[in-house]
Amino acid sequence: MDILSEIVANKRKEVEASKELYPVKLLEKSMYFDGKPVSLKKYLQREDKSGIIAEIKRKSPSKGMINAHVSVERTSIGYMQAGASGLSVLTDKDYFGGSPEDLKVARSFNFCPILRKDFMIDEYQVIEAKSLGADVILLIAAVLDKKEIEKLGKLAQGLGMEVLLEVHNEEELERSITDKVDLIGVNNRNLKTFETDVKTSMDLVEKIPADFVKVSESGLADPEIIKELKKEGFEGFLMGETFMKNGRPEKAAKEFIKQLEIE
Ligand SMILES: O=C(O)c1ccccc1NCC(=O)[C@H](O)[C@H](O)COP(=O)(O)O
After folding, report:
1. How far is the CA of 192 from the centre of ligand 1 (A)?
2. Domain for residue 208, yes or no?
3. How many structural domains is the chain composed of?
4. Which residues form the Indole-3-glycerol phosphate synthase domain (predicted)?
């Protein structure tokens, strides 16, 4: 079984357990449930922002432990002060060392778009994302068919959230495009081999219809590459490890964003 199939199989069990522990009726009582989400699309298009979606991720299947002792409060606030356009918070525990609590902490300290970064396969998780205060959910084309993307996307949009669809190649892009998503992310990481190549973004960009905000994801570590991706039409840049491998991720983000020379 490849890692993605393993993560998804594990996620199915986890979601069933969560449904028992925290039924939807309870999630709907959250103080965030009726709140208006913050638009990532709008933040990515602000000229005073960097376009960086800065991620909080303690570990990953490709890199193992990256930063076990990160302070979500300090890092999330620091990322936004450094000029990030939004936050991405891993809520998967077993493979990424995150938790729903991490997202709640980031939400309570920041007014900015927050992406719930997880493996979404069930409507329950979309409702849970809203109850945690998320503004955006991720849908991964490699694990969902078009009907599932439309069902989960429609529910998220109905709750006021935006949807980031992640693709890795032309086949995934072609079979998944729908108006039930708002942003399209090109994952530079091959989730089977873990190899990252920014050429993946460069090659796919012209195939993405103009009405979607374009995000380049993973393996980004050089400000010059961000400048090139911007020229190609990308407005968002999802970055995790480059910042998280530093003891103070927010300081690494500040240094990096400074080099983008935002006016
Ligand atoms: O990062 C992994 O090893 C990974 C493995 C399997 C599925 C997803 C994985 N990563 C999730 C992500 O999409 C990244 O955290 C995100 O794009 C940031 O990437 P990076 O800047 O390379 O940390």
Report:
1. 12
2. yes
3. 1
4. 4-255
pTM for the structure as a whole: 0.97
Condensed to tens digits (0 to 9), the pLDDT of residues 183-225 reads 999 999 998 889 999 999 999 999 999 999 999 999 999 999 9
Query: Is 249 a pocket residue for ligand 1 (Cβ < 6 Å)?
Result: no
Ligand 1 centroid to 47 CA: how many Å? 27
CB of 3 within 6 A of ligand 1: the answer is: yes
C-alpha 183/C-alpha 200 separation (Å) is 17
Instruction: Tell me if 62 CB under 6 Å of ligand 1.
Output: yes
Q: Is ipTM strictly over 0.90?
A: yes
The atom of ligand 1 lying closest to the CA of 194 is: 3
The best mutation among 218, 239, 256 to test binding of ligand 1, ranked by most ligand atoms within 8 Å of the C-beta, falls on: 218
Q: Is 218 in the pocket of ligand 1 (CB under 6 A)?
A: yes
Q: Is 138 a domain residue?
A: yes
State both tokens at 106: 């980031």
Closest Cα to residue 122, out of 97, 151, 94, 102? Answer: 151
Catalytic annotation, residues: 55, 57, 117, 166, 187, 217-218
Query: What pLDDT shows up at residue 263?
Result: 63
**144, burial (CB in 10 Å: exposed 0-12, middle 13-18, buried 19+):** buried
Q: Left if phi > 0, otherwise alpha if psi is -120 to 50, otherwise beta: which for 203?
A: alpha
Residue 125 belongs to a domain: yes
Q: Is residue 129 part of a domain?
A: yes
Domain extent at residue 202: 3-258
